[in-house]
């Protein structure tokens, strides 16, 4: 039985932003779906920052520019 791989190992992911954009990643030469690396804590933060916009900068009063 012959099969073709659907993915190949790409370049190094260097940021959390890039990681959460991926559907599949390679880890120790194995491919994993995003469900594996998007634990509930990371998923919650990603949603609060990107999708929902619940998290804001805290600017000290008197330091506004």
What does this structure look like?
The protein has helices at residues 16-21, 34-37, 40-51; strands at residues 24-27, 30-33. With 65 residues, it is α+β, with helices and mostly antiparallel strands. The protein has one domain (13-65). It has a two-stranded antiparallel ribbon. A hairpin with a 2-residue loop joins strand 1 (24-27) and strand 2 (30-33). The longest helix has 12 residues, at 40-51. It is elongated, with a radius of gyration of 18 Å.
pLDDT below 50 for ≥5 consecutive residues: which ranges?
A: none
Tell me the overall shape.
elongated
Order of helices and strands: HEEHH
Number of strand segments: 2
Count of separate DSSP helical elements: 3
What is the spatial order of strands in the main beta sheet? 1-2
Count of folded domains? 1
Radius of gyration: 18 Å
End-to-end gap? 65 Å
Q: Quick check: average pLDDT? A: 83
Kindly name the structural category. Answer: alpha+beta
Please give the largest β-sheet: 2 strands, antiparallel
Percent of residues in helical segments?
25-40%
Q: What are the SSEs and their pairings?
A:
Blueprint: H1 16-21, E1 24-27, E2 30-33, H2 34-37, H3 40-51
Note the main attributes of this structure:
two-stranded antiparallel sheet; 65 residues; alpha+beta; 12% strand; elongated
């Amino acid at each position: 039985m012959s099969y073709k791989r659907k993915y190949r190992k790409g370049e190094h992911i260097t940021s959390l932003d890039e990681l959460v954009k991926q559907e599949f990643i390679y880890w120790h030469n194995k491919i994993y779906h995003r469900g594996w690396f998007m634990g509930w804590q990371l998923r919650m933060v990603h949603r609060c920052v990107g999708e929902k916009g619940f998290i804001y900068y805290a600017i000290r009063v008197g330091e506004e520019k």
